[in-house]
Amino acid sequence: MKHIIIINGPNLNLLGKREPEIYGHQTFEDYLDILQSKYSECKLEYFQSNIEGELIDKLHEVGFKYDGIILNAAAYTHTSVGISDAVKAIETPVVEVHISNTYAREDFRHVSYISPNAKGVILGFGLKSYDLAIESFIFSV
Question: Structural domains in the chain?
Answer without folding.
Answer: 2-138 (3.40.50.9100)
